[in-house]
Amino acid sequence: MKMNKRIKINPFAYKVDPINETISNPDTHIIRKLSSMKGQYADTKSYEEMLLKEDRILYEVYEKLVPEIEGGLLQGMSIVHPGKVGREYFMTKGHFHLILDTAEFYYCIKGNGYMMMENPEGGWAAEELSPDTVLYVPGRWAHRSINIKADEDLVTIFAYPANAGHDYATIETRGFRKLVFEENGKPEIMDNPKWIE
Ligand code: 6PG
Ligand code: NI
């Protein structure tokens, strides 16, 4: 859902509800299921077995929409549920912004995880997310939220330029260079065996 670019909007305020993991009067509620992550998990066998049992909800997003024009800021809440596909944690699809040089602000209000990031120049970074962590994702860096807890949602508030757009295709075809697996009960960052140069 998009808001007409010509619409003039008035100032608005809304509540973040960390208990119910939502925001007041969201304009959208995006639900991403296991089936939308085909090819993103290293352990294809576990992925297929899980999908056969249930097309589980991996994460949800609530957005406050604004006209997608330069200067505006799109905001919302992202909730990654706990779980694993094989030894790999539940995560978001991940994306570059269509306007590559557009940054993003994240504030973690609940849970523990990583923001996996990479840029076209070969750089990668994995910042830990925990309550009250503020993360700045510079322009050019693709970003994916990863929940490393077994029993708690990873909840973040985000804001990014309203005209940024989303490039999912690059990540869907190449994947992220690095993935996060559970090794001896702890998260471990490893090379993505399926990553395409
Ligand atoms: C954005 C934000 C953020 C992101 C969600 C879901 O650019 O909109 O990065 O809202 O969309 O965390 O992640 P995916 O967009 O990768 O599914
Ligand atoms: Ni983004």
Brief description of this entry?
The protein is mainly beta and 197 residues long. It has helices at residues 44-53, 169-174, and strands at residues 16-17, 22-23, 28-33, 57-64, 73-80, 84-85, 88-89, 104-110, 113-118, 124-129, 134-137, 142-147, 154-161, 178-183, 186-191.
Q: What is the first-to-last residue Cα distance? A: 33 Å
Percent of sequence in beta strands: 35-45%
Instruction: State the helix count.
Output: 2
* Hetero ligands: 6-phosphogluconic acid, nickel (II) ion
Q: Give the overall silhouette.
A: globular
Mean pLDDT, as a whole number? 96
Low-confidence stretches: none
Q: How many E-type strands?
A: 15
What is the N-to-C succession of helices and strands? EEEHEEEEEEEEEEHEE
Largest sheet: 6 strands, antiparallel
Instruction: Please state the oligomeric state of the protein chains shown.
Output: single chain
Estimate percent helicity.
Answer: under 10%
Key terms:
197 residues; binds nickel (II) ion; 6-stranded antiparallel beta sheet; mainly beta
Structural summary, described in words:
The protein is mainly beta and 197 residues long. The protein is built from 2 helices and 15 strands. It has helices at 44-53, 169-174, and strands at residues 16-17, 22-23, 28-33, 57-64, 73-80, 84-85, 88-89, 104-110, 113-118, 124-129, 134-137, 142-147, 154-161, 178-183, 186-191. The strands form 5 sheets. The chain has a 6-stranded antiparallel β-sheet, with no helix packed on it. Strands 10-9-12 form a 3-stranded antiparallel β-sheet, with no helix packed on it. The mean pLDDT is 96. Bound molecules: 6-phosphogluconic acid and nickel (II) ion.
